[in-house]
C-alpha cells in the first residue's frame, strides 16, 4: 500500500510538473505579433451584440459585432481571434459562425483607439463558449493519445 | 571523469546511436523509385511534451504508460475547465491589465478553441518522452556563454510590462522608442519569419498551425511550414553558399546516410527563427521513418558564441491526412497598423498634445 502511495504521489508530481510547464507556455504565445504591443491595458471593454460579419483568415479571424450604446447609437466593433485552421480541422467552417448570433466579448481596446479589441473571452449571450476547445482535434483515433486505449 | 570528458563521451555514444539508426534499413516504409525512403507527405507535429524537461524530473527521460495517460488526462481536464461557460453578465476585464505575461502582455490571449497543441506526449521506439531535448541528459539547454549572459543582462529592463504608456519618452520627450519605425519590429510581426521556431531550423511545435509538408525530389527537398508560410529548400549533395551570403532560414544542404536524410544548415541571419540562436549557428537535422506512419525528427544545434556545448533533441512527426493551410499573414492584418498608430497616440498623450487622425475615437 505504501508503495502504491509512492507511485501515485510520484505520478501526481510528474503530471503536475508537466502540466505546470504546459500551463506556463499555454496562453503566452498568442500570435505572430504581441498582443501587448497592439492592445491597451487601460481601455478594457465588454461588448454585447449580434455578429454582423466574419473575416476568416489564417492566422487571425476577425469577428465583427454590432454594439448598441446607451443612447441607442450603433457601432460595429472588430474582435481579433485566432486561426480558423483549428476550427476547420474539427469540421467547422466559416458558416459555423452564425451571423446574427448574440455574443458577449471581453477584452481590451486597440491602442490606436479604433473600434477593435482582442477577443479575450468570446461567448454566446448565455455565457456558453462560442466553440468548444477539444483535447482532441476531432480526428480519427490514431494511437497517439494514451487515453485512446480501451475505447 | 571531468564534465567535459563525460560530455564528449555522451556525444560519442549519441553519435553511435544515431549512426546505427541511420544505417539500419527500415522495413515496410514507402520508397521512391530510386529506393530512398519517401518522406513526401504531411505531418502533424503537435505534442504536449515540452522542449525542455521540467527540472524536477532530473535525468528521467521517459514516462511509463500510466504516466503518459495521466498527462493526457490532465490536459483533457484542463480543457474541460476552459470550456466551462463564463458569467454571461461579466463586465470588462480589470483596468490596468489582467497581469498576463509574455506576448499576451497584460491584455490576455484568446479562447482555447483556437488552440491545437496536441493531446499527449509522443513515443519514440516505444518510449514515451518527458522532453524533446535529450542531450544534455537533463533535457535542458546547456549554459550560455559569458558573453551571451552579459548581453542578456545589458538588455534587461528595456521591455517593461505593457502599461499603456509611451514609457520610452520618460528619458526625454524626443527619445527614440521601439515603435519609431516598422523595421524595428520583430521579423515575425512583419510576417518575414516564423515565431517559436516552427520553421527553424530546428523546427519545433507550437500552439497551432503545426502541420509540415515535405515534397521530396532527388536534387531538392522542400519543407513547407504552416506557421508564417515559410518554405525551406534543401539542396541535396551540394556545397554551402559562401559564408557572406545570409538567408532568413539559413542555407540548407542535404545528403542520405542509409535511410536517414541529413540536413545541415549554416549562413543564418543575425536573428534566426530559433530563439537565442545567432548568425553563427549550425544546425544538423536528421529525418528517418520509424515506420510507414511516423517520421522521427532529430536536431543538433551548435553555436559556440551562444551556448557552451552543442545540444540535441528529437520528437515524432506522425503522418496526417490534413492539408497545410495558407498563412495569409498580411491579409486582415490590422495589427501592425494599430501598433504603429497606437504608439503615436500614446506619445501624444505623454507629451500632453492633442492626438490627430484618430479613427472612431472612443475616449
Essential attributes:
heterodimer; A: 151 residues; alpha+beta; six-stranded mixed β-sheet; 3 helices; 6 strands; 22% helix; disordered N terminus; B: 363 residues; ten-stranded mixed β-sheet; three-stranded antiparallel β-sheet; 4 helices; 20% strand
Please characterize this protein's 3D structure.
The complex is a heterodimer of chains A (151) and B (363). With 151 residues, chain A is α+β, with helices and mostly antiparallel strands. Chain A has 3 helices and 6 strands; from the N terminus they run H-H-E-E-E-H-E-E-E. Chain A has helices spanning 2-26, 35-38, 85-88, and strands at residues 39-55, 62-68, 74-80, 102-110, 116-118, 121-124. In chain A, strands 5-3-2-1-4-6 form a 6-stranded mixed beta sheet. In chain A, a hairpin with a 5-residue loop joins strand 2 and strand 3 (74-80). Chain A is globular. Chain B has 363 residues and is α+β, with helices and mostly antiparallel strands. In chain B, 18% of the residues lie in helices and 20% in strands. Chain B contains 4 helices and 13 strands. Chain B has helices at 3-23, 65-83, 146-155, 335-351; strands spanning 41-44, 62-63, 123-124, 127-129, 133-135, 211-216, 220-225, 231-236, 251-257, 260-266, 282-291, 294-302, 311-318. Chain B has a 10-stranded mixed beta sheet with strand order 1-6-7-8-9-10-11-12-13-5, covered by helices on one side. Chain B has a 3-stranded antiparallel beta sheet with strand order 2-4-3. In chain B, a hairpin with a 3-residue loop joins strand 6 and strand 7. The N and C termini of chain B lie far apart (68 Å). The model of chain B has no long low-confidence stretch (mean pLDDT 88). At the A-B interface, helix 1, helix 2, strand 1, strand 3 and helix 3 of A face helix 2 and helix 4 of B.
